[in-house]
Amino acid sequence: MIITAGRTATVLSAGFAGLVLALAPVAAQAHTLPIGAARAGGDQVTIDSTGWVAGDGTITLSGTYRCTPHHAGTVLVGGQVDQDGRHASVDGSVATCDGARHTWRNTGQPYFGIHPGAARGEATLLELAPGEGVIPLLPNILAHDTRDVTVKAI
Description:
This protein is of the alpha+beta class. The longest helix has 26 residues, at about 5-30. About 15% of the residues lie in helices and about 45% in strands. The model is unreliable at about 5-15 and about 20-40 (pLDDT under 50). The chain has one helix at about 5-30; strands at about 45, 50-55, 60-65, 75-85, 85-90, 95, 100-110, 115-130, 135-154. Strands 1, 2, 3, 4, 5, 6, 7, 8 and 9 form a nine-stranded mixed sheet that branches. It has one helix and nine strands; from the N terminus they run αβββββββββ.
């Protein structure tokens, strides 16, 4: 395969987006936005009170989001679950920012087992705003929700 500047930029951007979603819970704790609140402008995200785990360890989280169309960068919605002192993120997805309420559902397989039972769930709506210089994208948390969830077996 021939490596071009375009492919390199695409791979780096995709890798960076994955890293940002994985670190979103850390960033969410560092900002001053109250849990469950949204920034001015109407951006919102929720996580459902039930998550699902399959026999192979794949977890599925879902919820709703709303984001306004004025964002300059790509907006992602992602979910995380904390259980027994362990943290697991599921794959994120690109949000549709048209001002309407949408549902999100993301699935992933963490490196360790999530089991049926009580957990703490988080959802983050995150904009990857255009940056400058060596940092091509800057994460901007638009909304965040945290709640107790029940993980059920599929």
